[in-house]
Amino acid sequence: MAAPVLSERDLAVLRSFARRIDPLDAGAHNNLGVLYFQKGLIEDAMGAFTRALELDPKMQVAQRNLEIAYHKTGYYDRRVAELTERLRVRPNDREARWELGRTYASLGQQDLVRGHRVVDPRAGAGPPEQRHSLLHRRNLL
Fold first, then answer.
1. Which residues pair with 119 in a beta bridge?
2. So what's the architecture of 9-73 in CATH?
3. Where do the domains of the chain lie?
4. How many CB atoms lie within 10 A of CB 67?
């Protein structure tokens, strides 16, 4: 997929538009992600789709759009390989484990999320029931 070339002006207009959407509107974030994706801003698109899913975890269109973005760009394979290698070298790397779980969850691969005991690295030490990730609290596990 060849990304269109955006001028600085076009990019500024797009960023201005993004700042004006309702920050709590999952549909708006999904639509913004589609626009980013069409303009070749894949990282931004994935961020917008992820935000839509944070606001509405059951939003199937955002889930599918995120899956498409991951698969069409090969980002998913690279990200999983990178995080798996980090965990091979540092098995106790909580941030890598968290990100790997989030990557699997964003693709709807709950069986792989469960296999990684996803723990939010921001949760700090404490009883395991207090350290479960947002994924668990949102019943995604």
1. 132
2. Alpha Horseshoe (1.25)
3. 9-73, 75-137
4. 16
Tell me, yes or no, if the two domains 9-73 and 75-137 fold the same way.
Answer: yes
Query: Model's pTM, two decimal places?
Result: 0.57
Q: How many residues does the chain have?
A: 141
C-alpha pair distances (Å), 92 with each of 68, 72, 104, 107, 117: 31, 31, 18, 24, 12
pLDDT digit string, tens, across residues 62-120: 988 988 888 888 777 888 888 889 899 999 988 888 888 877 876 677 767 666 555 55
Q: What are phi and psi of 132, to 5 degrees?
A: -60, 150
Output the CA angle 86-75-139, nearest 5 degrees: 75
- The CATH architecture one would assign to domain 75-137 is Alpha Horseshoe (1.25)
The kind and range of the H/E element at 8 are helix 8-20
Amino acid identity of residue 91, one-letter, is P
Residue 14 and residue 25 in contact, taking contact as beta carbons nearer than 8 Å: no
Structure tokens at 53: 């899913």
Q: Could you tell me if 87 and 97 are in contact, meaning their C-beta atoms sit under 8 angstroms apart?
A: yes
